[in-house]
Design a protein that fits this description.
This protein is of the alpha+beta class. The chain has helices at 26-33, 36-53, 69-84, 111-120, 141-156, 223-234, 254-257, and strands spanning 12-13, 158-159, 163-172, 181-182, 190-199, 205-210, 244-246. The protein has 2 domains: 21-128, no CATH class; 160-257, no CATH class. It has 7 helices and 7 strands. It is globular and about 60 Å long.
């Protein structure tokens, strides 16, 4: 039996575009997700962490100038540039050589200032972090608030249609991390595994969960518990909305469909 689906009049994107098409840029779209609340979160927590760390004046020689929105946005823009155009060494992005010059980034932020912000960049107050063994301990504590706000922007900017799908994805990472995963069948074999909940026709990500490894309450050797929990958590606020959720055979268990 197929339950009736009542489409919303607001399906699709909710970004209010400028009247002038020339004002629509990559930066404009980026700001719809990294809004002022997220920028202010990073600015405030980075300044707080830098102030705390610099209580020892002998440890840090370069003077700390409080981070501002404009400087952080320049910092993030350079990080995106580095992800597009890879160079062997960080300092090369500030080289004056005509062969290495990168879009005049020296006009926006110096190399030393960039490295200083990178060193202090923070998303949360470390002094309030729950410790292992406490009931509210969270492996993602240092990024949890950021993730929650980012996912709020994902959902605020878009209302999906009736076809929804869920699957896993790998975020490339080879550094030290207790929940780093290896998936031989994926194009990206080493990284952070995420469960994605997307609109099927567009691929737009509505929300995601990070896989943190086997949990203590998981039944030993039973994959059903994980598959059921993943889907139930992702669709928790969609009950009685009658959307159609599509999954592959990894999630196909009687316990879930009940």
């Amino acid at each position: 039996m197929m339950w009736p689906y009542n489409p919303s009049d607001n399906e699709g994107p909710h970004i209010h575009l400028p009247d002038n098409p020339d004002d629509i840029s990559a930066g404009f779209v980026f700001a719809q997700f990294f809004d002022d609340d997220i920028i202010d979160l990073i600015v405030d927590q980075t300044n707080l962490y830098a102030t705390h760390e610099r209580d020892n004046p002998d440890k840090h020689k370069m003077k700390w100038v409080p981070l501002t929105r404009d400087v952080l946005q320049a910092f993030l823009g350079i990080c995106i540039l580095m992800g597009i155009d890879h160079l062997p060494q960080l300092k090369m992005y500030w080289e004056q050589s005509c062969h290495l010059s990168h879009h005049g980034i020296t006009k926006y932020i110096s190399r030393d200032r960039f490295c200083q912000i990178w060193h202090y960049l923070h998303l949360v107050d470390n002094s309030t972090a729950p410790q292992p063994g406490e009931s509210n301990y969270d492996r993602l504590y240092k990024v949890r608030l950021f993730i929650d706000r980012l996912q709020h922007r994902f959902q605020a900017n878009y209302t999906s249609g009736k076809e929804i799908t869920t699957d896993s994805a790998m975020l490339p990472w080879k550094g030290r991390l207790p929940f780093k995963q290896y998936m031989m069948a994926k194009p990206t074999k080493w990284g952070i595994k995420a469960w994605l909940f997307c609109e099927a026709c567009s691929g737009y990500v509505l929300r995601f969960n990070i896989y943190l490894g086997k949990e203590d309450q998981a039944p030993e050797g039973v994959a059903v518990w994980l598959c059921q929990r993943v889907v139930e958590e992702l669709v928790a606020d969609l009950h009685d909305s009658h959307v159609h959720v599509y999954v592959d055979n990894f999630y196909t268990y009687i316990a879930l469909f009940r």
